[in-house]
Amino acid sequence: MKIYSWNVNGIRAVQKKGLLEPFMSKHKPDVLCIQETKAQPEQVAEEMEALFPEYEQYWHSAEKKGYSSTVIFTKHSPIDVVNGLPEDIKAKYKLSDSYGDTTKEGRVITAEFEPFYISTVYTPNAKDDLSRIPMRQQWDPAYLEYMDRLQKEKPVIFCGDFNVAHNEIDLARPKP
Q: Which terminus of the chain has a lower count of CB atoms within 10 Å, N or C?
């Protein structure tokens, strides 16, 4: 099974630039996990279905339009799909701050297949001034607890944008 993960930084922009179709044609993923779609399903799902009819789509969009969000495209029907973190984990950790409530930003989607789970995540950024570190100190253990819980049932493949670039050189477009 071929599984790919891609932070597109806006699925509509990627599609407008003509990048998604060649990627899908070349790699033919069984599962494609996309982060930072910045879209609601009603904005693009119909077009995606027409372009890629062999894929089922599972979206977890932010309440705030044009922000964050994740999607899984799969050729294989999952047993179940869960958006976000479990309620007990959300209650245990402080997952909101002055920037917003990360549990309403479409940051996690998990699909269960017969042999394993696939979870894709768009982890909140700590910000250049590290002002979001306190929230990240809650987010990271919350997501890890969820993955550990799933791992007790069957293997877990988790992928995504973990927002861990330590230096400018680690960024897609570093500042000079």
A: C
Reported as type and span, the H/E element at residue 74 is strand 70-74
Which residue is listed with tokens 């910045």?
Answer: 38
Verdict on whether the full-model pTM lies above 0.90 = yes
Q: What is the pLDDT of residues 73-102, one digit of tens each?
A: 999 999 999 999 999 999 999 999 999 999
b/e for 57-80, b at 16 or more Cβ within 10 A? bbbbbbeeeebbbbbbbbeeebee
Q: Is 161 assigned a catalytic role?
A: yes
CB proximity list for 9: less than 8 A, separation 6 or greater: 36, 38
| Domain span including residue 19 | 3-170
Q: How many domains does the chain have?
A: 1
Q: What is the CATH number of the domain that holds 156?
A: 3.60.10.10
Residue 150's Cβ-side half-sphere holds a number of Cα atoms within 13 Å equal to: 26
Catalytic residue among 122, 128, 146, 148: 122
